TrEMBL record:
It comes from Kribbella qitaiheensis. This is DUF2029 domain-containing protein. The chain crosses the membrane at residues 55-74, 81-97, 131-152, 158-176, 222-243, 291-308, 328-345. Signal peptide: none annotated. One of its GO terms (cellular component) is plasma membrane. It is a multi-pass membrane protein. It is found in: Cell membrane. The keyword Amino-acid biosynthesis does not apply. InterPro entries: GT87. Keywords: Cell membrane, Membrane, Transferase, Transmembrane, Transmembrane helix.
């Protein structure tokens, strides 16, 4: 199951790196079995070493890097105090989760970016926090949502580093290939037709939900824009509340969820953020409910009901009500997670209001 996609995305990454070496001006014209390179020019620069390696070595190095990133994601989510044996058991078990399986099968970069961002946000002691967020956004634009978290939590120094490092990645792209960089930032950056079928069940975003619900392949239109606006403002404000209460893992997980929901395309392998979000959910419930919540959350991403209804070739446009429930299961699970965290936060806030003095200050960012 892990290798059913033959690491096709890693092949596309290598295509970008190789094209940059051969003729950088044709970066966005190159195709691999019809698949184009869809990332910023800086991503192609990062992929040059993998393009130079023989395929077996590139596969081995990339897969090891992905698994190591998975270990770091769990370590950062569960804390440094977790015993090594338990950590390895959790990592092994998480290989059964569909977003992780898909990331490994496609040879995707998601877990690496997730680990970098979690480190950058959660490790408050390192002096240049934000740099890794900017570099991650230079490889794949979706991490830009974490700049919103830095704004809402008033982490100005980290925001400066994040914005500066991202700007540096854009500059590198223009230095390496002015033509390709201009083409990407002036037209291709908003062209979702190069990414794949938006109605496809693997796309678990608001846009895809509205497309499947209405049958309109042009997207959600004004309804989608309004939903995106509400999700961004509400989600980042909730992230701020969680951050100020000291639940930084939940804060960054909700911010990631904002990006997943609001991006026009959020393939199921982008949902590796379900790992830290799941840890956040388990932490806010007590007793036997922890086992129930953990089982339901892991079960959702292990059995992946999004693949049960008819899919491919826009068959998603004919889904019945039951198909919609199954085929949008990640979105529904995400909304349930937000409700659970919100209820827990409200209960915690009410408890503090009874215990604390009026002058008590919240933790600083």
């Amino acid at each position: 199951m892990l290798w059913q996609h033959s690491l096709v995305d890693l092949k596309v990454y290598r295509l970008g790196g190789r094209t940059l070496l051969d003729d950088a001006s044709t970066l966005y014209d190159a195709r691999l079995a019809g698949l184009p390179f869809t990332y910023p020019p800086f991503a192609a620069v990062v992929m040059v070493p993998f393009a130079l390696l023989p395929w077996p070595f590139a596969v081995a190095l990339w897969t090891v890097g992905t698994v190591v990133s998975l270990v770091f994601v769990w370590r950062l989510s569960l804390g440094r105090g977790i015993p090594s044996a338990l950590l390895l058991a959790v990592v092994a078990g998480s290989l059964l989760l569909e977003p992780v399986r898909e990331t490994l099968g496609f040879g995707q970069v998601n877990l690496m970016l997730c680990a970098l961002i979690l480190y950058d946000v959660l490790e408050l002691k390192h002096s240049r926090r934000g740099i890794w967020i900017g570099l991650a956004a230079g490889v794949k634009l979706t991490p830009l949502v974490f700049l919103g978290l830095l704004v809402f939590t008033r982490q100005w120094k980290a925001l400066l580093y994040a914005g500066g490092s991202f700007a540096a990645t854009v500059l590198v792209g223009f230095l390496v290939s002015p033509h390709s960089a201009t083409e990407y930032w002036t037209s291709l950056v908003s062209d979702t037709t190069r990414i794949g079928g938006l109605a496809f069940s693997s796309n678990q975003s608001w846009n895809a939900f509205l497309i499947r619900l209405t049958g309109d392949l042009d997207g959600g239109g004004l309804v989608w824009l309004a939903l995106v606006g509400l999700t961004v403002l509400g989600g980042l404000w909730f992230s701020r509340l969680l951050w100020l209460r000291g639940d930084r893992l939940a804060s960054v997980s909700i911010c990631a969820l904002v990006g997943l929901l609001c991006s026009p395309v959020s393939w199921s392998h982008h949902w590796v953020w379900a790992l830290p979000l799941g840890v956040s959910l388990i932490r806010v419930v007590q007793g036997r409910r922890r086992l129930v919540v953990g089982t339901l959350w892991c079960g959702l991403f292990a059995v992946a009901p999004i693949w049960w209804p008819p899919n491919h070739d826009n068959r998603e446009l004919t889904w019945a009500f039951g198909d919609q429930l199954l085929g949008n299961a990640y979105l529904i699970g995400a909304l349930a997670a937000v409700v659970l965290l919100a209820v827990a936060d409200r209960r915690e806030t009410g408890s503090d209001a009874v215990r604390d003095t009026p002058g008590r200050k919240l933790p600083a960012a």
